[in-house]
Amino acid sequence: MRYIDQIDLKGKRVVCRFDFNVPLDEHSNIVADARIRAALPTINYALDEGAKVIAVSHLGRPKGRVVDKLSLNPVARRLSRLIGKDVTLAKDCIGPEVKHIVDNMKPGCIIMLENLRFHKEETDNNDEFAKELASYADVYIDDAFGNAHRSHASNVGITRYVKECGLGFLMKKELNYFSKALENPFRPFVAIIGGSKVSDKLHALGNLVKKVDKMIIGGGMAFTFLKAMGYEIGKSIVEDDLVDAAAHGIEMAKKMGVKLYFPVDCVIAESIDHKAVTKIVPVQEIDPNWMGLDIGPATITLFREVLDDAKTIVWNGPMGVFEIDAFSRGTFAMAHAVASSHALTIVGGGDTDVAVHQAGESDYITYISTGGGASLELLEGKKLPAIKAIEECGEN
Ligand code: AMP
User: Fold this and answer.
1) Buried b (16+ CB within 10 A) or exposed e, 77-86
2) How many Å separate Cα 146 from the centre of its chain?
3) Which residues are catalytic?
4) What pLDDT digit, counting tens, does each position of 21-54 carry?
C-alpha cells in the first residue's frame, strides 16, 4: 500500500478524490464542514510539496443530472477560506474547459472540479469517464473514506489509468484506527452495537464476536434478540426472519466466551411521536400494543458498568430513537459513558457521529470515523473496494 508521502508530487498534476459530501441547509449553507476539514492534511501537504492539486468529489445524490443545489460551489468557497488560497471551481468535472484549466495550473495551486455525480458514469464506474478523469492526473490520491465502500469511476476505475496511486492522510488515519481496534486491541475490548435493524449489521456482529471480549446490543435491533430469548416485545421493531440467526449468535458468543449484554429495561410508547405518552418498564413487561424506543435507566447503569474496565471501545448505532427527545436519553448516556471511559474509543460515522456531537462529547472520543457505510464494512472484516484498487494500481 502506498501513501501520499511516499510519492513525489513536485510540479505534478495530482487528482485527489475527497468526500466533500457535507450537509447543506435549504439556502445551500454548509451545516457541518468536518469532512472538508478532514481533507486539509492531504491538501496542505500536496500544496506544500508543490503539486498542482485537482480536487474531485461528489455531493448528494443528483443521479446523473445537473442539480444546481448540489453544486460544489459552497464547498470550494469554504475550502478557499480554510486554506487561505483561491479555489477555482470548474463548471464540470470532464470536458475541454477542465482540460484547459488543468493545462494552465501552476505548482502549489488548487482547483476543484464540479460534482462527479452530475454524470451517471461516475456511479456506473464507466471506463471512458474514468479514463477522462485519469487524463488530468500524473498522480492519483484517494482520501475519500466515506465513499471507499463504493466502486465508482473516481475511486476505482481511475486507478487503472494512472501509474502512480496512493492513499491520503485521512484514509491512513481511518485504516489505522480500525486496524488498531480489530487486529491488536488493548483488552478488554467492548463493542457497542445499536441502530434499527439486525440485518444491516449481521455481518459486523458475526465478525466482531470473534474479536471482542464483551458486546453490548441496544437500539431497535436488540428486540430481535430479546424475541429470540422468548420475551414479549409488543410492537417493537423486529425482524422475524432473523430471530433464529439471533438465537444462533447468542449460542456462538457463549461458546466463544464472549459476554453479551442486552437491555434489561426500556422506554416504551404506543407511537414514535414526540408527544407520545411514555413508560419505563423491565423488558419482561412490555405491553403487547406498545413498542420499545430507548434503553431504560437500569440498562444505562448496566452498560456503564460493562464499560468500566474497557481498554478499547468500538461503537456503531444509537441505543434508541435519539432523534426524538423522549427517546434520546439512552443514546446520550452512552455517549457520556464512552467519552468518560479510559479506553481507546472509536465511533462509527453516520447516526452515532451525530449523536455524539449532539451530546457534546465529540472532543472526548479518540476517533470519530468520517464514513458510516465504509466503517461498517471494516467492522465486517471486508476489504474496501477503493483500498483494493489502490493496492492493485501499478499491477495493470
Ligand atoms: P442505523 O442506521 O441502523 O444505525 O439505525 C439508526 C436508526 O435506528 C436511528 O434513526 C434510530 O431512530 C433508529 N432506532 C434506534 N433504536 C430504535 C428502536 N428501538 N426502534 C426503532 N428505531 C430505532
Assistant:
1) ebbbebbeee
2) 6
3) 35, 197, 350, 373
4) 999 999 999 999 999 999 999 999 999 999 999 9
Asked, as a colleague might, if the bond just before 263 is cis with ω within 30 of 0, I would say no
Regarding pTM above 0.85, the answer is yes
Half-sphere exposure of 244 (CA within 13 A, CB side): 1
Residue 319 Cα to ligand 1 middle (Å): 7
Task: Residue 378: name the closest of 316, 335, 285, 327 by CA.
Answer: 316
Beta bridge partners of 286: none
Atom of ligand 1 nearest to the CA of 197: 3
Which residues contact ligand 1 via a Cβ below 6 A? 195-197, 200, 219-220, 237, 292-293, 317-318, 320-321, 323, 351
Atom of ligand 1 nearest to the CA of 196: 8
Ligand 1 center from residue 256 Cα (angstroms): 28
- pLDDT of residue 394 exceeding 90, the answer is no
Structural domains of the chain ordered from first start: 4-167 (3.40.50.1260), 176-379 (3.40.50.1260)
Distance CA 56, CA 357 (A): 27
Q: Is 279 helix (H, G, I), strand (E, B) or coil?
A: strand
Q: Whose CA is nearest to atom 4 of ligand 1?
A: 195
Amino acid at 206: G
Q: How far is the CA of 261 from the centre of ligand 1 (A)?
A: 18
CA-194 nearest atom, ligand 1: 4
Give the burial class of 311: count Cβ atoms within 10 A of its Cβ; 0-12 exposed, 13-18 middle, 19 or more buried. middle
Q: How far apart are the C-alpha atoms of 267 and 8, rounded to whole Å?
A: 57
- The rounded Å distance from CA 353 to ligand 1 centre is 13
Phi first, then psi: give them for residue 79, nearest 5 degrees.
-60, -40
Helix (H) or strand (E) holding 166: strand 164-167
